[in-house]
Amino acid sequence: MAPIAISDLSTPDNHFHQTTSDLSKNPLERTWRGNKEGTLRIQGYPEFMYATDEEGLLKKRQWVKEHLAAAFRFWGKLGYGEGISGHITVRDPILRDHYWMNPFGVHFSAMSVSKLVLVTPEGYVHPTLGAQRPINMAGFHIHSAIHKARPEVEAAGHCHSLHGKAWSAFGRPVDITTQDSCLFYDNQAVYHNFGGIVLAAEEGENIARALGPKNKCAILQNHGLLTLGNTVDECAYLFSALDKQCKVQLMLEAAEGSGIKKTLIDPVDAAFTAATIQYHENTYYNLNPEYELIVEREPAVLL
């Protein structure tokens, strides 16, 4: 076999760094292209996402519940179900100090709009709105603390995914080694204290404090992963992406143990990439193909 010539284009003398200076100020606009006339476009968030009138807010509530139910089915598809563990919460668009979440003991893959529970600020099931089903106590302690600490965040998600909990035992953030991992550049925290199953408000507050004021992703040592989002779509997608990166990290660690050195992405390039792919409408859109597929194949999710 003839030798293969390999050109190294990443030496310090000729490494090319891109910049956002000549790109659209809206990160969503950087990721797609329509027709030359500019009439073929993608739609961002639905208009009612910004509504303040009753009709618009009711539409938004229904939209939030449909996307939350589909997010659970997406997690079920990925095999994240682990008995009674795992929860996603989303603020109610009308009762802003209430949030929707999954009921206790219902499989992610069986979730539907009618099974979702509305939780009061005190952590109890709302007496008239939503399903009348119990909720997970640990989910209340974790999520209520996060929603209080991060009022700008709409959704929070946590479960015991396989690769996430495996990597969590190291108590380390994931390395920025791939384009997809730039989602977590300057956007991840590690909670280094495992205080047992979360059955006290203080542990939930500690987790919220570890997240800090801006991170949307966290590795809970000896426990698993947790992600936040401006939408439930962003939250669910970030979780799946972080779990995949944990798998990548475990594979890289195994290879490096055999003497193969991994290469980290230059911080300048990571920051450039993150400036686009971390934008909340882009992360929201990343779940859209899964949402549409679930609704098409499993229409009962909307019931």
TrEMBL record:
Entry GO CC: cytoskeleton
Region feature (Disordered): 9-30
GO molecular function, one term: actin filament binding
Domain Class II aldolase/adducin N-terminal intervals: 66-250
InterPro entries cross-referenced by the UniProt entry: Aldolase-II_Adducin_sf, Aldolase_II/adducin_N, Aldolase_II/adducin_N_sf
Biased composition (Polar residues): 9-24
Domain of life: Eukaryota
SUPFAM superfamilies assigned to the protein according to its UniProt record, in alphabetical order: AraD/HMP-PK domain-like
PANTHER family registered for this protein in UniProt: ADDUCIN, CLASS II ALDOLASE_ADDUCIN DOMAIN PROTEIN (AFU_ORTHOLOGUE AFUA_3G09800)
Name of this protein: Class II aldolase/adducin N-terminal domain-containing protein
Taxonomic path: Eukaryota, Fungi, Dikarya, Basidiomycota, Agaricomycotina
